[in-house]
Amino acid sequence: MTGRDEAQRVDLGTPTDDPGQGHRVLATADSEAFTSVRRRATTREERYAMGKALRHDVPRRSLGDWHPSPGRADPVALLEESHRGRVPELVPVRVARMVASPYGFLRGSAVVMAADVAALPATGIMPVACGDSHLGNFGFYASPEGELVIDLNDFDEAHPGCWEWDLRRLVASIWVAGRENGRTEEQCHDAVLACVGAYRDEVRLLADMPLLARSYNRLDVGRLHETATEKSLRDEIERSVRRARQRTSDRALPRFTTVEKGEKGDKGDKSDLDRPGQRRIVQEPPLITRLPTAEREAVAVALDAYLQTLAPHWRRAVGGYTLVDVAHKVVGVGSVGLRAYVALLEGSAPDDVLFLQLKQARRSVLAPFVHGGSAWHAHQGQRVVEYQQALQTVSDPLLGWTTVDLPGEGPLDFYVRQFRNSKGTIPLDAIDAAALTDYAGIVGHLLAKGHARTSGASMIAGYAGKGDKLGESFGRFARAYADQTEADHALLVAAVRSGRMPASEGALDKVGSAFRP
C-alpha cells in the first residue's frame, strides 16, 4: 500500500520498544500520509473493501470474547503504579471514590482496561481515540459562539488507538452503570445494542460525506432534544441544560470565593493576594486548598506562558485579565492526586471574572500499547489539547497548555481550559431503562463522530457492516467485562481492608455516588 494507506506493523498487545510483530496499524492519526496534498488517496470504495476484508483476519464475533489470561496483570498493582507521582495526601481520596462501587472503580481504572483491551483482537484501524470513553465522559459545554453542545468531554488519555478500544470501554461502562441503577441484564443488553448500532450507522453516514463536511457535524442541545425519543430523557436533558447554563464564572464567584477581612492599612508582610479586601478562593480541605507562596508564583508564571498557546484574539482577551488567586482543587476520579489548579482572574470590574483550570497531563494509558517506550509527545498538555480539538467538533477557545516548574519537583506538563463554561452532564442515576437505551444511542453517535473526524471511517464502516453482528459481539464483551469490573472492584475493596491500599476514613462504611462524586 502507498500514500494515505501506508501501513506499519506494531504489537498492540504488549508494551514494547520493538514494533516488529503483531497487528497491522492502518491509517494512523499520526501517519505521514497526512503531511502532503500531492499524493492521491485511495478511493472511498477501496477503503470500504479494505475494511470488509479485515473480517477474515479479525472475525466480528471475536470482538465479543473476554477471558482474563493467566498472566493478566494484578489490577491493584496497576493502580499502585499509576499512583506514583500523585500528591500522596490525595491518593486516599481517589481510592475512596473508586471503592464506592464497581462503576466508580471503572471510572478510575482506565489504566487497567487499557492493558486488557490492548491484548484483545482488533482490526488495527487507528483513529484518534479518547482513551477513557466511559458513559460519564460525555457532557455539555459552551461553544465559542456561546451555544450549548454535547460531546466527548474528557481527553486526558486521548491518543491514536484502535477504535475498538474506545467502543469496548463505552459499552462496558453502560452495562456496569445499568447494573448499578438496578437495570436487568436484558435492559443493559438493549442499551449496548443501541450504542453500537448508533456508532455503526453514524460512522457509515459520515464515511459517505466529504472530508470537510464531517468536521462540521455537531450535536447542539436543540438537535439533542429532537434526537431523544424517550420523554423521560428529554425531561432530564431540559433539567441538565438549565443547570449547565448556570455554571459560568460569574455565578461561581459567590460559591467559590470570599473577600479577605482586615484593616485597610494593615499590609504587614502580606503578598498582593493576601491584602484586606482581596477576593480569595474559599478553602475546603482536602478538596480545595490554598498554595504556598512559591507554588502560587510558579502557577502565575505558567499562566503567562499559557497565553502564547492561544490564538491571537483569545490571547489578547485573556491577557486583559489579572490573576487574583489560585488554589488546588480535586476533580473527578481518575485525575484525583494529579495536580489540578483553579485560577481566579479579574477583568476591568469586580464582577468581570474568569475561572481557569490547569490540569496536570501525563502520558496516555494507551501510549505504551501503540508506541511502546520509544515514542513520547514532547508536551503531554499539548497532546491533550490537540487531540481534544481533533475529536470535538467545537472546543473551548481558551484551551491551551503550559509547564509549571514546581519548587523541589521540577517541570510538570499541564493543559488549561475554562473552569466554568456551562459544563454539565446527564445524571446517570436519574434516568430509567428506556432513557438509558436512548442515551446510549446518543453517545454511540458522538463517539463515531469523533473517530470519523480523524481517520479510518470508511474502513471501520466496511468492517462493521449494516447488521447486528457487531452489536451482539460487543454485547457479549460488555456483560463479561462488567463481571470482570465487579471482580476487580472486590479486589480493591479487599486491598483497602487489608491496609495495602490507603483510603479516606469511612470509605468502606458507606456507598457514595459513583455517578456524581
Automatic annotation (TrEMBL):
Residues 235-277 have a biased composition (Basic and acidic residues). It comes from the Bacteria. It comes from Microlunatus spumicola. Residues 1-24, 235-279 are annotated as: Disordered. Pfam families: DUF2252. This is DUF2252 domain-containing protein.
